[in-house]
Design goal:
Helix content is 67%, strand content 0%. The chain contains 8 helices and no strands.
Length: 189
């Protein structure tokens, strides 16, 4: 029986959850599907394309637009939803950060954040910088959370796994900075 592209992506996502990004290989995905690795190349030209598809699969589960009226509330909620989606998948932040850094994948959170900021009346350069800063914060914070959880569960750290999260405080700092810079720009204009 022939596997669809979606079958390959779902299996790769499961491999990522079960084994982590380091063990997400074409060979392992093929083994899980009970096919030869060469069969995967019918759907993906290489591992990077497969990783991009898995990252898109993770990101498509997130509503980055939102319906909240206030741009700050909407941006804060979008960042929280992105964090939740990344945390739901082992090494999700590392995978998405890698794919985004290479300019791969069809789903681009920074573009969604940027569009939100532009619709709030910000200049494109400020919206672009603010969107990328928020995305980098989310990816970095979630990577730190995931590494801490994995290190704790593997017994690799002697400190207790962190309780709670200061994620919201950091998001508020980024959003406050964007708003302050926007107000500063308005006063200078």
């Amino acid at each position: 029986m022939r596997n669809s592209r979606d079958d390959v992506v779902r299996t790769a996502h499961r491999v990522l959850d079960d084994y982590g990004l380091g063990d997400l290989t074409m060979r392992r995905v093929a083994t899980e599907l009970d096919v030869q690795p060469s069969a995967l190349y019918h759907h993906f030209p290489g591992k990077q394309a497969l990783l991009a598809a898995v990252a898109d699969h993770i990101l498509r589960r997130v509503n980055l637009v939102g319906a909240e009226k206030d741009w700050q509330v909407r941006l804060r909620a979008a960042a929280g939803r992105l964090r939740d989606s990344l945390l739901a998948c082992r090494d999700g932040a590392e995978l998405v950060a890698t794919v985004q850094a290479y300019g791969l994948g069809a789903v681009r959170p920074a573009e969604a954040f940027e569009a939100l900021l532009i619709s709030a009346g910000m200049s494109p350069p400020l919206a672009s910088a603010g969107a990328r800063t928020l995305l980098f914060y989310v990816l970095g914070h979630v990577t730190d959370e995931q590494v801490n959880l994995q290190a704790g569960s593997a017994g690799a750290i002697t400190d207790a796994v962190r309780e709670g999260s200061d994620f919201g405080v950091g998001v508020d700092l980024v959003i406050s900075g964007i708003a302050a810079h926007d107000q500063h720009t308005v006063r200078l204009g």
